[in-house]
Design brief:
The complex is a heterotrimer of chains A (124), B (506) and C (505).
Chain A (H helix, E strand, L loop, with lengths): L6 H24 L7 H4 L18 H32 L5 H21 L7
Chain B lengths: L2 H9 L7 H19 L8 H18 L9 E2 L4 E2 L2 H24 L8 H19 L3 H19 L6 H32 L1 E4 L2 E4 L3 H10 L4 H18 L8 H7 L2 H24 L6 H23 L5 H22 L6 H26 L15 H4 L1 H15 L5 H15 L3 H26 L23 H19 L2 H7 L3
Antiparallel strand pairs in B: 1-2, 3-4
Chain C lengths: L2 H22 L4 H25 L9 E10 L4 E7 L3 H22 L4 H20 L3 H22 L4 H29 L7 H10 L4 H19 L7 H8 L2 H11 L1 H14 L1 H28 L4 H21 L3 H32 L10 H4 L1 H15 L5 H16 L1 H26 L5 H9 L7 H19 L2 H11 L12
Helix pairs in contact in C: 1-2, 1-4, 2-3, 2-4, 3-4, 3-10, 3-14, 3-20, 4-5, 4-10, 5-6, 5-10, 6-8, 6-9, 8-11, 8-12, 9-13, 10-14, 11-14, 12-13, 12-18, 13-14, 13-17, 13-18, 14-16, 14-17, 14-20, 14-21, 16-18, 17-18, 17-20
The chains are: A mainly alpha (124), B mainly alpha (506), C mainly alpha (505).
């Protein structure tokens, strides 16, 4: 087995390590250090003192909505290619309509389920 | 890809062959619909509907057991029908049916939505059945992930209990790790095999058959061997083999009892179904590497499982860690199956006896746990035999069968594995297994002791409250289910024909 | 060869097991005791009938053969039952001791009597199955079937230290059983017969004997496994502890019959199949048995103050003779061991029974607290003295013939060990007679006087006498007419048409 084929990987690794290391090294050597200065260490907030925790909590509704969005987003990924090849497949006599209808049926069922379970009710 | 090829693939779509899985998936959706359209008072019938669906599909598969063409590849090689696949189908359906029964005992005690549990149960069952018949790494991975993701939710199903959530998180993190390992292995195999053109059809390293051909022609390929070992590692996580067993005790303890049973039986069996599928299919040429690796795994698993179970007082942890030891015994069967073909049948025989005994024990655990699910310690079994003699007897038979005491089914399972190991000349592993069995007697016997032998304990100082009363015994469905499991366990100890005619050479 | 006799043999094993199942399913108590009594009696009647019908001239072959398919025929496992000249006396022993133990259990009035009877019936069925099995897998299987109830009985109805005793018993005996199972599987695999059927195994070995080193390691496994089960020194420590804690009927069946499983296995399986392997280990076995079991344990027995512990140790000691007889590797020695097993089984069961009866009257097992019981209970005293004398091996009891033939065989093997064994007889005479004297003669201790003042001890009633009488009658019968056993055994060991000098004539 020839390892020459893996040479690009090695080059990539060396480049990645070299650039990262180089930048850090350069900032260490050239940068002006803010030794122990609290103000200079703090995040820049347009001159106002930063306030509160960075880890704010979001309502679980955001996640539910986000996940539902992803689900129906993926649906499009399947549907668009399907529309493109639909005619070709029919010409070849390949059953393509009913599987896709079943897929859509499952999704619609899921949508009804969400609505009934109140997953889409924002004010509750 | 040319449409000609697609047409050929489409021609191999045999939907009827996946009937059981499709029916289960539809039934799972049907449960949700039922919940939406029926009034709330009727919802208690939904678990029964799930059980009925499983029972009907089980009956269908059992009746049509031999009516497949062994080795037929469907869906462009994604699925391969086989006799072990049929056995796995029956196994998973039976196991899920019993989990369904356990759930009807346990779930009403907790304030959780119920229908989704049965929905997930059916979906996971269908995925398990697909997993055991997969013939393509993409199919394999998708089925495995469906199972795993279902389990993430099921393990943390008691969402108001910290222990259940903790178990779910641990399972999620470690499960993701194992999926990553598995996926990395698949990718390495894919990379090593590359694209092979044969007869105008392009094959890739995702197909089991192509991997097999490649490994046969390139015996010493490092990348492919590493990939295969990583895939085995991912599977070892499922069966809880050392060193991938680390999640077992905490997850088993925190998960709801039916889910623990599901994990202990179906998830473990799925691991072995896949392992047998791989080592006798795609990875067969790697026997020289796999035999020592699996032997080491088996020995370490047996020793670790038994030693760590030795001091457990919590019954769920005990079942988990002793289950690790059982995985070790089963691995011996897998190793033996390289030289003794019928050892694969012996592994399945063992799994069936393990299913019967484990479910009986989990059934008793579900009742002993009581209305608040707190009775999980061995001390809670005191006076069980006197006050609930039926549960005591079921527990004794189940635990005895797990310990491998004749004349119970578990003993026959161990015997067949040992005979296979003897034929395969695995003397070292046999010695480890015997030591393991003797150690296991100690903790299994301790459990029986807790339930049957009356130990005088001084009344707790300072508390006037009487000892925790034993919860109510099972109703008639529970009695029937547990009695049937017990009867089957005893019967298979004397008379193995129902299973042996089916799993082993005549 | 009569088919109905083969069915009778099956019936003898099925009766106790079936009765146990019926009682376990919830038969009311008064029917349960009657059913149990019938189920304990039936096997003895069948055993006596089979004994009278036994074709003595063909004793080396199996009579009453029957085969039942259990689903593993491909692995050479099927329930094959039958009796040959060696199995027949043991089967009879199991039936006699089983009946005595059962009758004694029925009158014991134990708490949770039904469960007790169920377990005892399972044990009885297992014991009968052990000696009727031609298939060595089922031979092992029935042994375990009989062994499991022992653990539970010790744990539930045991005396002092029952938890510890039950646990130790379980671990030791399971380990021993696993080792012997490995040995049996090794025979199955290595002989090439691909069958657990003893007849087929013998044929396979006759066609091609196993290689010497294979015989050696299989022999080692079997001796280690069976040795643990039979309490070969130094693996014997479970025995006195277990017998000390076990309820009387369980101790009777275990010490009397079940423990003989290992010796029987050595005689029936190891001697014909791996003779070279046994020869390889013979001296080591003989030294362990002679020095360890007979001398060391003999002295330990003398030091015991607890009656039941003493009986436990003495039974360990007597197993030493049996091992010595096997180590002598001669036909006479083997025949003597079978005789001795039957005799010892009867006498030790009788002693355990009487010890419990004594305990009912004195409420103690401590020898130093007893005394003078003979005046109040003369019948009990007579039984006990007779049983002790049988245990020592005085002429008139079956034990005498067993020990005598073992010594004769041993003389050819090693003069020194014979001397040790004979010294063992003296030791057993010392502790046996001293125990009898302590319990029944001499002045009663103060404590005993207090106890007997409150509960005046009655003599044996009929329900206790009956099982004791059955055992004693059998001991005397075989003592005066050893041919009843020795002839089939002799025929089984010497298939030649003309018998050599019968071992005990």
């Amino acid at each position: 087995m020839s390892y020459a084929a893996y040479l690009p990987f090695l080059v990539q690794i060396v480049l990645a390590a070299g650039i990262t290391g180089g930048v850090i090294l350069a900032s260490q050597l050239l940068g002006q250090r803010a030794l122990g200065s609290k103000i200079k260490d703090a995040a820049y907030e347009c001159g106002i003192l930063s306030d509160g925790s960075t880890h704010t909590r979001f309502s679980v509704k955001f996640y539910v909505t986000a996940m539902l969005f992803i689900l129906f987003d993926i649906e499009v990924v399947f549907l668009i290619p399907w529309t493109f090849v639909y005619r070709d497949f029919l010409a070849q006599n390949i059953a393509i309509l009913s599987p896709m209808l079943f897929f859509l049926f499952v999704l619609v069922l899921g949508l009804f389920y969400e609505v009934k379970k109140g997953a889409l009710e924002w004010e509750k | 890809m040319s449409t000609e090829l697609l047409k050929a693939v489409a021609a191999s779509n045999e939907w009827w062959a996946l009937g059981p899985e499709i029916i289960l998936a539809c039934a799972a959706l049907g449960l949700l619909v039922l919940e939406l359209v029926t009034p709330k008072a009727q919802h208690r019938f939904i678990p029964h509907a799930a059980g009925m669906a499983l029972a009907v599909v089980l009956a269908g598969v059992a009746l049509n057991f031999g009516k497949i063409w062994d080795g037929e590849e469907l869906f462009g090689g994604l699925i391969r029908l086989s006799m072990p696949g049929q056995v796995a189908r029956v196994f998973f359906l039976l196991s899920s049916l019993l989990v369904c029964f356990l759930a009807t005992v346990c779930l009403p005690r907790a304030r959780v939505p119920r229908v989704e549990f049965y929905h997930l149960l059916l979906v996971v069952t269908a995925a398990l059945m697909l997993l055991a018949q997969s013939n393509h790494f993409v199919m394999f991975f998708v089925a495995l992930e469906t199972v795993t993701i279902g389990f993430y939710i099921l393990v943390s199903y008691y969402r108001e209990r910290a222990s259940s959530l903790e178990a779910g998180l641990k399972y999620l993190v470690l499960g993701a790790l194992s999926s990553a390992i598995l996926l990395f292995g698949i990718v390495l195999l894919y990379g090593a095999v590359g694209r092979v053109e044969a007869g105008g059809v392009v094959h890739t390293g995702f197909e089991f058959g192509t991997v097999l051909t490649f490994l046969r022609e390139n015996p010493g390929n490092f990348l492919a061997t590493a990939g295969a070992l990583l895939v085995i590692g991912g599977v070892a996580f499922k069966i809880g083999a050392f060193p991938f067993q680390i999640w077992v005790p905490d997850v088993y303890q925190g998960a709801p009892t039916p889910v623990t049973a599901f994990l202990a039986v179906s998830s473990k069996a799925a691991g072995f179904a896949v392992l047998l599928l791989l080592v006798h299919g795609a990875f067969a040429p790697l026997a020289g590497v796999l035999v020592p690796v699996l032997s080491l795994l088996a020995a370490a698993t047996i020793i670790f499982g038994n030693l760590s179970a030795l001091t457990q007082r919590n019954t769920k942890r005990l079942m988990g860690l002793s289950g690790v030891a059982h995985a070790g015994y089963l691995l011996i069967g897998v190793v033996a199956s390289f030289t003794v073909p019928w050892a694969a049948g012996a592994v399945w025989f063992y799994l069936f006896t393990y299913l019967l005994a484990s479910m009986a024990v989990f059934g008793v655990m579900a009742y002993v746990a009581g209305p608040d699910d707190s009775g999980e310690e061995l001390d809670h079994y005191a006076r069980l035999a006197r006050e609930r003699p039926f549960l005591g007897a079921v527990l004794a038979v189940g635990v005895g069968s797990l310990a491998g005491i004749p004349p119970l089914a578990g003993f026959m399972g161990k015997l067949l594995l040992f005979v296979a190991a003897f034929h395969a000349q695995l003397y070292g592993l046999l010695a480890v297994a015997v030591v393991g069995v003797v150690i296991s007697i100690f903790y299994y016997f301790g459990w029986i002791k807790a339930a049957w032998f009356e130990i005088w304990t001084p009344p707790a100082a300072g508390t006037d409250s009487p000892a925790r009363p034993l919860p109510a015994g099972p109703k008639w469905v529970g009695v029937a289910a547990l009695a049937l499991l017990t009867f089957a366990t005893v019967l298979l100890g004397f008379f193995q024909a129902p299973l042996s005619g089916w799993l082993l050479p005549r | 060869m009569n088919p109905s006799n083969a069915q009778l043999l099956q019936l003898a094993i099925a009766t106790p097991l079936g009765a146990a199942l019926i009682i376990a399913c919830g038969l009311p108590k008064r029917f349960s005791t009657k059913l149990a009594a019938a189920a304990f009696t039936a096997p003895l009647l069948i055993a006596l009938w089979l004994w009278s019908q036994f074709p003595a001239e063909n004793a080396h072959q199996y009579a009453y053969l029957s085969t039942t398919y259990t689903g593993l025929a491909a692995f050479g496992i099927s329930l094959k039952l039958g009796l040959n000249g060696i199995a027949l006396p043991m089967f009879l022993l199991a039936a006699i001791v089983g009946l005595a133990a059962g009758l004694y259990a029925l009158r014991s009035g134990a708490e949770r009597l039904k469960l007790y009877l169920v377990l005892l019936l399972v044990m009885h069925g297992g014991l009968l199955g052990v000696f009727a099995s031609v298939d060595i897998f089922f031979f092992y299987f029935f042994h375990e079937l009989a062994l499991i109830p022992t653990f539970i009985m010790v744990g539930i109805w045991g005396g002092r230290d029952r938890n510890y005793a039950a646990m130790k018993l379980t671990i030791y005996l399971t380990a021993g059983a696993m080792l012997s199972l490995l040995g049996l599987i090794a025979l199955y695999v290595k002989s090439g017969a691909n069958s657990f059927d003893l007849i087929e195994l013998k044929d396979a070995v006759a066609a091609q004997a196993l290689a010497g080193h294979t015989q050696n390691w299989i022999g080692g496994l079997l001796l280690l496994g069976f040795g643990t089960l039979v309490s070969l020194w130094p693996l014997h420590t479970w025995a006195p502890l277990g017998y000390g804690a076990a309820p009387s009927s369980a101790a009777m069946l275990h010490a009397g019959v079940l423990k003989k499983f290992g010796l029987y296995g050595l005689i029936q399986i190891a001697i014909p199949l791996i003779p070279l392997g046994l020869q390889h280990w013979a001296w080591k076995l003989a030294l362990l048995a002679g020095i360890g079991n007979v001398l060391v344990v003999g002295f330990v027995t003398m030091a015991q103050r607890d009656l039941k512990q003493m009986l436990g140790y003495s039974s360990v000691m007597h197993m030493g003779y049996c091992f010595l007889g096997i180590a002598a590797l001669s036909t006479i020695g083997t025949g003597g061991v079978v005789l001795l097993m039957v005799a010892h089984g009867l006498s030790v069961a009788l002693l355990f029974l009487l010890a419990t009866s004594i305990h009912h009257r004195t409420h103690t097992f401590d020898l130093s607290e007893m005394g003078g019981l003979a005046q109040k209970t003369p019948v009990l005293a007579a039984f006990f003295v007779a049983a002790t004398m049988a245990g020592i091996g005085l002429p008139g009891f079956a034990n005498f013939w067993g020990e005598l033939t073992v010594f004769v065989a041993l003389w050819k093997f090693s003069h020194a060990l014979t001397a040790v064994a004979v010294a063992g007889v003296i030791i057993s005479a010392v502790y046996g007679l001293r125990a009898a004297a302590r319990v029944f003669f001499g002045p009663a201790s103060e404590q005993l006087q207090r106890v007997t003042a409150q509960h005046p001890p009655a003599d044996l009633d009929w329900k206790e006498k009956l099982p004791a009488l059955i055992l004693l009658a059998a001991l005397l019968l075989f003592g005066f007419y050893p041919k009843a056993i020795s002839q089939p055994v002799d025929q089984a060991l010497n298939p030649a048409p003309v018998t050599l000098t019968a071992p005990a004539r």
